[in-house]
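queue> pop job 88
queue> type: inverse folding (structure -> sequence)
queue> payload:
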């Protein structure tokens, strides 16, 4: 006669502890590389330093944690787009933005920022800075915002 298997309470507890230790061990071995998710404030565009006047909003980009959306503020309007990172390359979808009327300096900054985003082919994250590059040329540089 075949006897059905029933784990005792102590056996179940032992298995649960071992299983959780195995999972913990696996997660501690895998280290995430620094990602782009989070907010980044614009500090340079086309090699020129950018500054923000007192009381003004700084241009910023935010990469979502899921790795599929970018959004932000380009100096006048809010924007968003889809993006894909594959084999070290960045592909940005069409940029959607609000249509607020802007002063000429804000419009110029926004056009330059949207141009940099549209022409970006790769990203580089080094020492709290995010560079948007086309080939080896830095189109825009951002600093990390609200990072721990």
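queue> result:
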């Amino acid at each position: 006669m075949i006897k059905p298997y029933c784990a005792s309470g102590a056996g179940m507890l032992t298995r649960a502890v071992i299983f959780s230790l195995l999972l913990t061990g696996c997660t501690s071995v895998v280290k995430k590389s620094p990602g782009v998710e989070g907010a980044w404030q614009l500090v340079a565009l086309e090699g020129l330093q950018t500054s923000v006047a007192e009381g003004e909003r700084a241009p910023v980009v935010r990469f979502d944690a899921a790795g599929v959306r970018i959004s932000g503020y380009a100096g006048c309007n809010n924007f968003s787009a889809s993006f894909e990172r594959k084999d070290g390359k960045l592909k940005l979808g069409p940029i959607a933005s609000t249509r607020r009327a802007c002063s000429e300096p804000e419009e110029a900054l926004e056009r330059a920022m949207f141009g940099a985003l549209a022409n970006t082919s790769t990203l580089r994250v080094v020492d709290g800075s995010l560079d948007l590059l086309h080939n080896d040329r830095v189109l825009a540089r951002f600093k990390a915002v609200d990072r721990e």
